[in-house]
Structure formats: structure tokens, C-alpha cells
Amino acid sequence: MRHQPPPGPTPRLTDAQKDHIPALLPQGIHLLWVYREVWIAPRLGVVTKETEVTKMVVQLFNANSNSAPPLWRIERKFYITSQQIGLACGLLRHVCRRDAEHPVGQITSLYFDTIDLNEHRKSTSGDFRKDKVRIRWYGESDCRDEVRTIFLELKSKRGFAGTKHRQKMEVPADLLTMPYLAQGIIPKTQLHAMLATFGYFPLDMLWPVVVITYWRHRFIEPLTGVRVSLDYRIRSTMLRPSPGNGERELELMGGVIEIKGTSIELPPTLRQMGMLNVDWSRFSKYSACIDAHDEGIGTVGRLSPSGRIV
After folding, report:
1. What is the DSSP string of 87-108?
2. Residues 6+ apart with CB under 8 A from 125
3. Which domains does the chain have, with CATH numbers?
4. What is the mean pLDDT of the chain?
């Protein structure tokens, strides 16, 4: 449901009053300016475009807290084919316990990159230093809530080890629809300011590139507490004009098992995954989706990870 303005004339604020608005807001509450393109078709048939500016309030949680830096962790990924997803899920249910709070659910991420897709190129070339910026939210796309919780995340990897910073906020649900996703949900200035609180200062402006949605089953390895997830039905929609063929909801074949812990060694219970005949890989949903959109329609192996045809 969209909020309607109150009846009667809109009160006018002076420039001095506008400058004091941020100071009057409670801690953690920020103003968000949303730019919406409105297409108008007059009787003469000439289509014109105007820009409508809306001011919304966004709430950040613990935005100013001096929290401890995130811990480094080892993330191992094992790509599995579509035929192995059922067996993999059954195996993980046998050797692990399901996550009690969020056992299964849909995840959507809006990924940002430079205009030249620098982070995508680092991922495909296997660079030692890699950083991914995304806005993530949970739940199915037909959720009817007027306000949605989202997380700005910075995922950094240095070799095998990585960290993840995240900032929780609440935004109007309308911002998670396609017209606004291409604008990045939040203004670029606010995006870079929040990344600065993580200690990350990209040299170039970041732009929304692709929306990726998938289903995730979550597990806990009982002996070590290592977190395990099984992701599948990985679908993507490109937001930038290039690369891509204008396709939406392009679905990759197969899935991926992710194991996240502090040791490079697998717990003994998880070594049973050897029966799936899978190897540790550098599989990246972000790069795999961009590569799939970049390939011509009908190309052999287009929906498979780099170096494999399934």
C-alpha cells in the first residue's frame, strides 16, 4: 500500500529549516531521497520523461556503534550438478542438524561493481584480494510488507580467508522492485558513506549490476559448529545495459555447497561429501551469472560454471 499525502496544502520549509532536519532526527534515522522516472504521453503522441523526487525515511540499526571487527573465516565451495542436489540435501540432513532459526528460505542480493566490472574480473582471474558489495534481503518477492529489512554487506577475501561486514536497515518495500533496483535502492553517496564505516574506500563509483535470487538450506555441523549451506535455483537479472541479452530470471544449472568455518580442514562428518565426487572450487554466483548473461543465447555450457559443461 502506498502512502498518500495528507489533504490540504503542503507546508513550505525554508532552506535553513531543511538544513536542520537531519539534526532533529533520532539516532540511526536518515533521510533517503528517491528519484522516480515518470513517463508522460500527451495527446500529440510525444512521450516525455520527468523526474519525481520523493523523500523517505530509512532506519539504520547500530550505525554508530563501535563494534568489534569481523572475524576471518575460511569459506569452501563445492559445485554440484542439478542431478546431485537431492542427494546432497539428504546427505547434509544425515550428518548435520538443520539451522533452528532459518532452516530454509529465499535470498536476494543486489550486487554493485564499477562501470568496468573490476571486481568481476578479479573473481574470474583468481586475484588474491577481492571485495564484493551487495544489498541483501530475505523472503519471497511477493511479500506484502510495507517495510522490508535489508543488509548492506561488504565481503572481502584475501586468499582463502575472508570477512564480512554488514549493516542492517529498513526501507519501503517499493524500493525492492525492479524500477528502483536499477537505481541501487539507496543513493550512491549514502552507499559509499556506509562503506567508509567498514573501512572500505573504492577508487571508482559503484553501480548496481545484477540481481541474484536463490534458495538456501542451512545446516550446522554438530561437532564443530561449522555452518553449511546448500544453494540452488540460482536466478539472475542484469541491470546494466552491457553485458547481457536483456533476459530476466536466467537460471544457472546445478547448485553449490558452502562450508564456513575457521579451519581449512573439513570436519570428519563432512568428508562424506566425497561420495558426491565434488571438488573444492572457486565458484562465484556473482561471476557465474554475469558470464552466463554475457554468453550468446544457445551457447554450449552457457549455464554451467567456468571450465565445466553439465
Report:
1. HHHHHHHHHSEEPSS-SEEEEE
2. none
3. 15-60 (no CATH), 73-294 (3.20.100.30)
4. 81
